[in-house]
Amino acid sequence: MVKRKNNIGGLARFLAEATQTSQSESLSQVDAATERPGSTTTLSVGTVAAEDAEHPSNVDSTDLRPMKKPKLQIGLLGEGLEKYDATGLVPFYTDPSHVPEHLQKYFSQRERYFSKYSSGCLLDEEGWYSVTPERVADQIAERCRCDVILDAFCGVGGNAIAFARTCERVIALDVSPVRLALARHNAALYGVQDRIEFVLADFISFARALQTIPRTETSTSKATRRKIDVVFLSPPWGGPSYIAGSPSKAQTSLSTSEAVTIASEDATGDTHAEFSLASIQPIHGHDLFNVARGITKNVAYFLPRNANLDEISQLIADDPVEKVEVEEEWMGSKLKALTCYFGGLASGQEAGFDE
Ligand code: MGP
């Protein structure tokens, strides 16, 4: 049994100290996000809203009586969990007739995304179309079982919740304070919020800041980098139209008129245009992979079912020995996505996990 370590909060502090400029600003927002989200049912996690609640501008400065603490309202999470409650940040749909047309197909799969949906799970628009279905998330989490995992694009928390069940600690990043608050709300509903460190940060800056912290103590710094065992990448694919494919890397060097769409047949026999890693956001999917590998060799990369397999194998072209394992994520007769396991996560390469 691996011992639980509780110093992830220290990681955020190390990063703040290491960078001190824009990164530390974003990390102070992190503190706001981790301390105060959902302190009322309508406020967002942003610092401004939180400060307004504590220092309203219409306060009479001559009135020296101690200010009353704002009363926490009971939301979907119920009593005792108010500080994690994000009720009111986005609609909680229960009646199909209230769901916008373009979200209907996702709403009909709500219990697949979160088996506890009806208890009060919250998703924003991007969450509806990109959350990993719970059973798929559980399967990936089993494969990624480790001490510390970094969920680089946590969204509304589907994967982070699953990782919290198989990993000692989860560091969950997102650039959206709203999505981060929704992820924490959902994690609280599953009772795993204490195992996840929610960090308002973009993965690229986070990884860069991490590199500035020495792995071992130096004469000038006692701060050492916390070991991250696995990085999980589930980045934006460019929205629901990803299935229409995109010009591959080779194709993008051609003029638009020359660019042709390569069609491929997936295991269901459906034909789709191939998705290129060039369409990954916020940077090219190949570059994103390299950033993750700067942290650890053990990377799990969640990609569209029509992803170009040649591009995936090219990710490790500079290593003649390493293999990537591509897992098809099926739900019933439907192929949903691919998870690509690298380093010690791939079958046959487990021995290299701790390298
Ligand atoms: P889908 O193909 O859009 O949904 O996404 P579905 O219900 O299979 O649609 P259908 O019309 O083919 O029936 C399938 C799965 O891919 C989703 O459940 C998400 O887990 C994942 N997914 C979809 N998008 C658009 C994204 C994305 O942008 N990023 C990530 N990381 N995952 C996504």
What does the model show?
The protein is α/β, with parallel strands linked by helices and 355 residues long. The chain has a domain of 233 residues: Rossmann fold (3-Layer(aba) Sandwich). It is 32% helix and 13% strand. It is built from 14 helices and 9 strands. The longest helix is centred in the first third of the chain and has 14 residues. The chain is globular and about 70 Å long. The chain starts with 7 loop residues before the first helix and ends in a 14-residue tail after the last strand. The relative contact order is 0.11. The N terminus is likely disordered. Bound molecules: 7-methyl-guanosine-5'-triphosphate (MGP). 7-methyl-guanosine-5'-triphosphate binds next to α7 and β9.
Structural descriptors:
355 residues, alpha/beta, binds 7-methyl-guanosine-5'-triphosphate, 7-stranded mixed beta sheet, two-stranded antiparallel sheet, Rossmann fold, RNA_cap_Gua-N2-MeTrfase, SAM-dependent_MTases_sf, RNA cap trimethylguanosine synthase activity, globular, Trimethylguanosine synthase, 32% helix, disordered N terminus
